[in-house]
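Box S2. Input/output pair 1.
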Amino acid sequence: MIAELHCHTHYSKGSKIKTEGLNSPKEIVEYADKIGLDAIAITDHDQFKGAIEAELAARNLDITVIKGEEISTKQGHLIALGLSEIVPPGMDVNLAIDSVKSQGGITIAPHPFDLNNKGIKENAEKCDAVEVFNAINLDRLSNFKAMRFAKKKNKPMVAGSDAHWNLMIGHGITRIKTDSTDEEGIIKAIKKGKVEAGGKYIPVPLIQTWSLLRIKNSYQYLQQYIAENYSLPKRALSKRLLYLTKRSPGKIDYFFKGIAYFGLATAMVYSAAKHSRNII
């Protein structure tokens, strides 16, 4: 069984750029079914509506929906799978894990050592599995560190695309060794470690296009945020850069492409400096 265990719908929202997920739950499951996935977990940020809607949308499709959530705990992000109701954000990670267990679900530590410090780091040992390959991680060493950590702690290792757009789905996949096709059976197999992580990184041009679509969909909010929170000259520069997104698609995309690859290079250099002592 091939599964996507980390995916977001339009119910996932950001703090500065409001739009994160671009697709509806129905669009997500239909695309996942189209590319041949056997199961997909809907893990919206601190939301459960998308998981419920996705399960309903998949009734006439040949794919299993795993109802989940990416919970914002005090220590960082925590993926919960096999939920029956939402787990509130802002909890201590230990209480969040207990809440998931009380529902019969399991927990996964997504991107535990990412550069944005949104992972739960060493608290990943408390989870049922560790995400050792996150397909959208710009710095490759964070994934390598997660894999070494999982092996050292003898934790089941899974992958996820961290998809916020249907075209990102299926880049980070987990092969699950089970004959069961229902949510409960899949959850049990993951917990028992009958998994194998794999996949490929999401191409930079795809991330670039997603980023531009996010900005365009959040344009009015970003204008207001810049006006209220930035002072000169940062305010003027930010407004100018924001306006340039209106010229995309077009020749301006070469400029955005340069920014995207510069960001990738910067992330990799910073990651090497940050993680070098811990991965040698």
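Box S3. Input/output pair 2.
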Amino acid sequence: MNLDIDKLQKNLCSLLCAEVKIRSKNDKLLSISTPFFFADGDPYQIYIKEMPGGIIRLTDMGHTMMHLSYDNDIDKFREGTRGKIFEQIKAETFVDEDNGEFYIETPIDNLGFSIFRFGQALTKINDLTFLNRGRAESTFYEDLQEQLFKIIGENKIKKDYYYEGMENARDYPIDYRIEGKHAPLFLFGIPNRDKARLTTIILERLLRAKADFDSLLIFSDQGLLPKQDLARLSNAGGEMIASLDAEADFSRKLLRKINPN
């Protein structure tokens, strides 16, 4: 290798120093500008606060969660799959939290390392916004159940229902059974192609068993399914909701089918 390591080291240090600057915010805080930005172009807000015993605290002063709250329900960051990942991020990056404020306490000698570790933590927390219904099956099912319970109540719903009139019923679970106006309503959540194909098989077996039922199919994003899979599912199934984001459509079609009592 012909690269001059010392020259590369000097260039790297020069670039990094140019990207990270410290300014006085007030008599208690120093502000740090870094090369870390949110998706909308706003910079991360990182501050230095002097603590007793020669320790300094890097803190976002609660800005990260406030920024994310503009377009997200941040309470969901602490629930289900998102909540587990959220806690894992804090543990892996050694970041503490106090009522939405993230911080790291460090000796002054470790300031440089801690700044980048703190930036990494805030980036990972920001990336939780990408755990939306189109990208994560587990959160799709959580969001589907949350909406379902909100519309009609948990006590009216049977989860993971098996139609015993069908051969090998335990191999073909129905996501939710709800008492319908004229027949039981079988509701399926469909986050991907594999679940679409399985739902088609279940519906076809129910039809062959001459089951008396109605069905409602809710997609994470219907537009992402191959046309052939969607066509087969359409032939076997009932009404469809193209996306879980279509909350009004979901509520209207669901309430029209269920027994109000």
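Caption for Box S3: Residues 137-257 form a domain with the Trna Endonuclease; Chain: A, domain 1 fold (CATH 3.40.1350). The first helix runs from residue 5 to 19.
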